[in-house]
């Protein structure tokens, strides 16, 4: 109920064209693109999508990440099983600038070679293609991405990712 109220406030006071469905569609697409670029360590291509502070933290974390965990970061848009809004915030900074941030939670399937007992991970699924000897493991993983947009007059109308969490993978 609280989240729906914030969406109403966004439409009334910031963006009359705001649509939850359109935002969610765009967030899924951004999540897929960003997660693949993270997996490939192509951080230079994330400048316009991710805040500078988050990029700096990611550079440090990715350099220490094992290859199988890095592979598990990638989420194909068709492999996103479920998406939900976590938290919506509307706030003003000390200079009177207006911001909206929306935390999105994603559950996605990934075939990375992870151990069966990754702590905090959801059940491992085995999908059989053809005969029994051709089993393919898929992990159901989660990620949290926070999107922020400045609604001050004259600001660029772009959403920026200000937080990226892949629990148990990017810690």
TrEMBL record:
<dbReference type="GO" id="GO:0043022">
    <property type="term" value="F:ribosome binding"/>
</dbReference>
<dbReference type="GO" id="GO:0032979">
    <property type="term" value="P:protein insertion into mitochondrial inner membrane from matrix"/>
</dbReference>
<dbReference type="GO" id="GO:0005743">
    <property type="term" value="C:mitochondrial inner membrane"/>
</dbReference>
<protein>
    <recommendedName>
        <fullName>MAIP1 protein</fullName>
    </recommendedName>
</protein>
């Amino acid at each position: 109920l609280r989240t729906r109220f914030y969406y109403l406030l966004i439409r009334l006071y910031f963006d009359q064209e705001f649509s939850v469905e359109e935002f969610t569609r765009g967030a899924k697409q951004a999540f897929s693109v960003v997660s693949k670029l993270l997996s490939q360590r192509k951080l230079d291509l994330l400048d316009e999508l991710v805040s500078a502070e988050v990029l700096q933290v990611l550079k440090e974390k990715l350099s220490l990440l094992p290859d199988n965990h890095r592979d598990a970061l990638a989420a194909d848009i068709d492999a996103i099983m479920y998406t939900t809004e976590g938290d919506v915030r509307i706030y003003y900074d000390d200079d009177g600038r207006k911001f909206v941030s929306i935390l999105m939670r994603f559950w996605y399937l990934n075939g990375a070679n992870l151990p069966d007992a990754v702590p905090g991970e959801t059940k491992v699924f085995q999908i059989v293609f053809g005969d029994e000897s051709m089993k393919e493991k898929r992990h159901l993983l989660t990620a949290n991405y926070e999107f922020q947009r400045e609604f001050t007059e004259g600001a660029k109308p772009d959403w920026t990712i200000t937080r990226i969490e892949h629990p148990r993978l990017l810690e």
